[in-house]
Amino acid sequence: MVSYKELGLVNTREMFKKAVAGGYAIPAFNFNNMEQLQAIIMAAAETKSPVILQVSKGARNYANQTLLRYMAEGAVAYAKELGWEHPQIVLHLDHGDSFEICKSCVDFGFSSVMIDASSLPYEENIALTKKVVEYAHQFDVTVEAELGVLAGVEDEVSSAESHYTKPEEVIDFATRTGCDSLAISIGTSHGAYKFTPEQCTRDPKTGRLVPPPLAFDVLHEIEKKLPGFPIVLHGSSSVPQEYVDMCNQYGGNLPNAIGIPEEQLREASKSAVCKINIDSDSRLAMTAAIRKHLAENPSHFDPRQYLKPAREEMKKMYIHKIVNVLGSDGKAE
Ligand SMILES: [Zn+2]
Hints:
Elements lengths: L12 H10 L3 E5 L3 H14 L3 E5 L1 H7 L1 H17 L7 E8 L2 H9 L4 E4 L6 H16 L4 E6 L3 E4 L2 E3 L10 H8 L3 E4 L4 E2 L10 E2 L6 E2 L5 H10 L5 E3 L7 H9 L12 H8 L3 E6 L1 H17 L6 H24 L7
Parallel strand pairs: 1-2, 1-13, 2-3, 3-4, 4-5, 5-8, 6-9, 8-12, 12-13
Antiparallel strand pairs: 6-7, 10-11
Helix pairs in contact: 2-4, 2-12, 3-4, 5-6, 9-11, 11-12
The structure holds zinc ion.
């Protein structure tokens, strides 16, 4: 048993309370390797933004969960070395799908876990979420739950259709489970292909796809039912077209990749939405930079030569999200 407190990590409780009251959101960035983690920590340290490091089941399979946990511990020390005196870093399990996975993360030094039982019938979702909450709270680990179903594909989480969260269920769900935050479905979607062209309209000037707007009416209805309760948005990459273009220009093939417009995420950040998950944008920034570098430098074969610009591009993207979209800069001075 390792307590996250010994590792210098924090849970999400205070962070979310301040974010809801202050009208901003905390970035939740997924990481799978050293360069992503370095870029996240550099961006958070430079902007003094609280940050949530997310580990998905796919990341655990790819990079090994023991290694990822030690990397998060290293990230705290690295943040201090960069001059961030009191780093506010959360290590969070993204989309835990069983009590056992959540328990193993709590026991292993995670400060926050998500139990995603949203695909189960309502009463079963409540029962499983409650079981995780009861275990995690003994160790002051915070728990995110999910109600409603997001469309899209993210690692091993996928659904063809989305079902908006039903506002009439949220009070009952939050009260009976005791969860600390709630991921809702209001039209965001996992992955880099959030919408089919048929679901979109086209901008007549640029010819680009314009996605359907988020269901802010559902969000506001939920806020009314649970005033001040921390709300989480998954699947909230904006899929910057500059990266899609860069990938395609240098040998990639990403037709019709599309995300959530940043203005809508900025708007959501001002509400009770206090955690916004961004994964695909980091993948795109990294891949775009690597493709460009290798295309322009065909003789390079030292991974540091192409991973360095990739890391720079990710850092730039993370800072942009923190400062211009989520508004969390300076909130962890
Ligand atoms: Zn997700």
